[in-house]
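Lab channel / #folding
Pinned by the channel admin:
"Please post every new chain as: sequence first, then the structure tokens as a reply. Keep commentary short and put observations after the output so the thread stays searchable."

First post following the new format, from NK:
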Amino acid sequence: EEKLVLVIRIRGILNMAPKCKKILQLLRLRQINNAVFVRVNASTINMLRMVEPYVAYGYPNLKSIRDLLYKRGFVKLSGQRI
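Reply from TO:
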């Protein structure tokens, strides 16, 4: 059973329903080509089904996670990016 999903936003907000906009905000996907890691549970699966036309998602392997974090990853501690 996979525990983590990589979600990438692939479309803009043109003709998007307000509920889909809110879900993308909750997933921290505010711009096109942004990616986030999301834990898999029933609520996140339902959210991903609602915004499926606007995002691409899948189960990453260890190599792709490592490459993304080394190249583009960052951490926020008390509001400051490190």
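NK: The CA atoms of residues 69 and 77 lie 16 Å apart.
TO: also worth noting, The beta strands are 4-9, 35-39, 55-58, 76-77, 80-81.
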